Amino acid sequence: MLLEDEDCKLLEKIAEVIGSAEAKTSFEYQGLGLVLLGLQAEGYGSKILRVTAAMLDRGGVWGVIHLTARAV
Predict the structure, then answer these.
(1) Measured distance CA(11)–CA(19) in Å, rounded
(2) In Å, how far are 29, 34, 67, 71 from 63, measured between CA atoms?
(3) Using an 8 Å Cβ cutoff, are 70 and 53 in contact?
(4) Binning pLDDT at 50, 70 and 90, where does residue 27 land?
(5) Which residues contact 39 (CB under 8 A, 6 or more apart)?
(6) Are 44 and 18 in contact (CB under 8 A)?
(7) Contacting residues for 57 by C-beta, under 8 A, at least 6 apart
(8) Does the pTM exceed 0.85?
(9) What is the pLDDT of residues 50-59, one digit of tens each?
(10) What is the pLDDT of residue 40?
(11) What is the dihedral of CA 72, 24, 19, 9, to 10 degrees?
(12) Among the four 3, 5, 24, 59, which has the fewest Cβ within 10 Å?
């Protein structure tokens, strides 16, 4: 697939952001002694969902937020 230079730069930036967020969440979970069941995300969509669920689970104030994070 041929992409414009701007699109390639955008995809690289997305990969950087997702990579840093995954590294941060995996580091935090390792510190707690939790294992993420060896889940390997292949595409950006699944990676974004996994990082979003981890952020919701960590930052949820109400109990329903934790339930939603686990559902994602």
Answers:
(1) 12
(2) 20, 20, 7, 13
(3) yes
(4) low
(5) 50
(6) yes
(7) 65, 66, 69, 70
(8) no
(9) 888 777 777 7
(10) 60
(11) 110
(12) 5
